[in-house]
Write a structure and sequence with these properties.
This protein has two domains: about 1-150 and about 315-325, no CATH class; about 160-300, Rossmann fold (3-Layer(aba) Sandwich). It has 14 helices and twelve strands. It has helices spanning about 10-15, 40-55, 55-70, 80-90, 100-105, 115-125, 160-170, 190-195, 225-230, 240-250, 265-275, 285, 290-300, 310-325, and strands spanning about 1-5, 20-25, 75, 95, 130-135, 145-150, 175-180, 200-205, 215-220, 235, 255, 280. The strands form three sheets. A six-stranded parallel β-sheet has the order 9-8-7-10-11-12, with helices on both faces. Strand 11, helix 11 and strand 12 (about 280) form a beta-alpha-beta unit.
Length: about 325
């Protein structure tokens, strides 16, 4: 069973062929986004304090749920309350991730002491874990008493240019660029700037879409995201763990923009520069749709010589199986 507030369509796109049941619930607030690049720190704090206020209620509810389901193992990415609930029930409790929320929020603790209350909630829960499966591109994650590093769990997609062209109507004789953002605030001037780059075809994944002659939305229910990445020539994005992993395993050049107010960013940027053909673009250029120079430069930049460890999926599955037996 997957316990999450993510849309089920998103999960089925990423977990094609794997049977699962979704139970809608949420036990952390992450970082509230103004859009795919900018963070709303005050709203994040407001929601985080609400989580602190309702911690006991959430813990009691999750403990009762685990008992009712006769659950044998809890794996979290990466809230802390389910770990506490699993400890109360007496079943194994594992975490997986490349950062912890107490660490992310520590960047704001000097601005407002209420962040320390939030950090404490996560630290106390993380301390109850039996094991952390620490993914690549990670911080030290000292809140977890026991850790084991595993390789990248993402698997390469299948290049399906003909299928993607048939699905979207995109021409096959241009360079293909994926705009990997859940939202992007482009005004009419920015869209005209992008539309003028006729030598490129740009793809988005719905619900992000614009009606322009060289901008092609992809329905995530019709093609797995990993196959979309495998099919394009360049990815334009912010460096998040998921898209970074997908680009690394598919060996795709990345044009990337700064991610503000997120402590993880320097670690991910370092990984981009080590493992990918890359080009940085300032945020103000991205918001104006000024992409041409970065797209031209990224393909002429040196290809990386390093490759991180891959095949983490089977490694993680074996570890989980060991905890279930």
């Amino acid at each position: 069973m997957l316990v999450t507030d993510l849309p089920e369509t998103f999960l089925r796109n990423r977990l094609s062929g794997i049977p699962f049941v979704v139970r809608p619930a949420v036990f952390d607030v992450g970082m509230v986004q103004l859009d795919s690049v900018r963070v709303d720190v005050p709203e994040t704090l407001r929601r985080a304090m609400d989580l602190v206020l309702h911690r006991s209620e959430l813990l009691d509810r999750e403990t009762a749920f685990l008992r009712a389901q006769d659950a044998g193992l809890v794996v979290c990415d990466i809230p802390s309350i389910p770990l506490e609930a699993a400890e109360q029930v007496g079943i194994p409790r594992l975490a997986v991730g490349n950062f912890s929320w107490n660490w992310i929020y520590s960047a704001f603790a000097d601005q407002d002491t209420r962040w320390r209350e939030v950090m404490q909630v996560f630290e106390e829960g993380y301390a109850k874990s039996d094991l952390l499966l620490r993914l690549p591109f990670a911080e030290e994650m000292t809140a977890f008493p026991r850790q084991r590093d595993i390789p990248i769990v993402a698997e390469p997609g299948t290049a399906r240019r003909d299928a993607l062209a048939a699905l979207t109507g995109a021409p096959t004789d241009r360079r293909w660029v994926l705009l990997s953002f859940s939202s992007l605030d482009w005004d009419e001037e920015a869209l005209r700037e992008v539309e003028a780059m006729e030598e490129y075809a740009f793809f988005t994944v719905r619900p992000l879409e614009w009606k322009r002659k060289n901008l092609f939305p992809v329905d995530r229910e019709r093609m797995p995201f990993s196959d979309v990445i495998a099919s394009v020539d360049i990815v334009v994005t912010k460096p998040g763990f998921g898209v970074l992993s997908e680009c690394v395993v598919n060996r795709k050049p990345m044009v990337y923009v700064d991610r503000t107010d997120f402590l993880e960013y320097p670690i991910l940027e370092e990984a981009v520069q080590r493992y990918l053909q890359h080009q940085h673009i300032p945020a103000e250029q991205l918001y104006r749709g000024v992409l041409h120079e970065a797209l031209e430069r990224v393909l002429s930049n040196p290809e990386p010589q390093e490759k991180p460890g891959m095949g983490g999926g089977p490694v993680a599955a074996q570890i989980l199986q060991e905890w279930l037996t």
